[in-house]
Q: What sequence folds into this?
């Protein structure tokens, strides 16, 4: 599915969010609190927009790896940012060693994990103690009038905009299945992160979560 829509993915993101998805990725990269010379991993990197934001913070001297299981998406990412490393990877079984990165991020990809808890554990595993795990994701607002607008937009308008492919029917369904912000914070803590917090933006449609990898033997959040 993601290979099929790779060619229109960036355009559809901009249309669906009025271009705001770039600002949300900037905020996610800010939460990673990276410095020049750091190493970062962007999981489910897609066409590489969040990886590019991370690179702006770790250069010069740093490294960003974007990992994804869609070769179509990776091809787009490599053309967009040839200076970065984009590799095929399974988010549920990352090929990197323990404590390898200063931060791991996922932008609009965690709801595609077939096993969310395992994906979060893997992201935590590859981050050094004291490093950050950041999750940027769409969430479902619960209070009108925004909840009413969100339902109209995601259940009716987005599938019509993407009627050339059933991926854009999958999109609203995947958002509905994904845990709410408080639940996701608990799952991040369960993956081994401390100091877990989240912020809602765009009227409650976007949630940004961040947690710190606990040192070995440290207590919970």
A:
């Amino acid at each position: 599915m993601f290979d099929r829509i790779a060619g229109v993915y960036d355009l559809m993101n901009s249309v669906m969010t009025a271009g705001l998805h770039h600002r949300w990725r900037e905020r996610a990269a800010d939460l990673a609190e990276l410095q020049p010379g750091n190493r970062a991993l962007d999981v489910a990197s897609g066409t590489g927009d969040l990886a590019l934001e991370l690179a702006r913070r770790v250069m010069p001297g740093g490294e960003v790896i974007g990992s994804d299981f869609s070769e179509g998406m990776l091809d787009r990412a490599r053309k967009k940012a040839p200076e970065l490393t984009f590799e095929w990877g399974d988010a549920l079984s990352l090929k990197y060693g323990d404590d390898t990165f200063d931060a791991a991020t996922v932008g609009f990809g965690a709801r595609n994990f077939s096993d969310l808890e395992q994906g979060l554990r893997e992201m935590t595993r590859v981050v050094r103690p004291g490093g950050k795990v950041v999750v940027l994701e769409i969430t479902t607002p619960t209070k009108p009038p925004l909840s009413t607008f969100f339902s109209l937009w995601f259940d009716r308008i987005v599938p019509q905009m993407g009627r050339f492919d059933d991926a854009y029917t999958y999109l609203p369904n995947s958002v509905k299945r994904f845990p709410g912000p408080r639940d996701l914070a608990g799952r991040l803590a369960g993956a081994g992160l401390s100091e877990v917090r989240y912020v809602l933006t765009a009227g409650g449609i976007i949630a940004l979560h961040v947690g710190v990898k606990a040192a070995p033997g440290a207590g919970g959040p």
In short: The two ends are 37 Å apart (CA to CA). DSSP finds eight helices and seven strands in the chain. The helical segments are 2-17, 21-32, 49-58, 71-80, 116-125, 146-161, 167-177, 181-190.
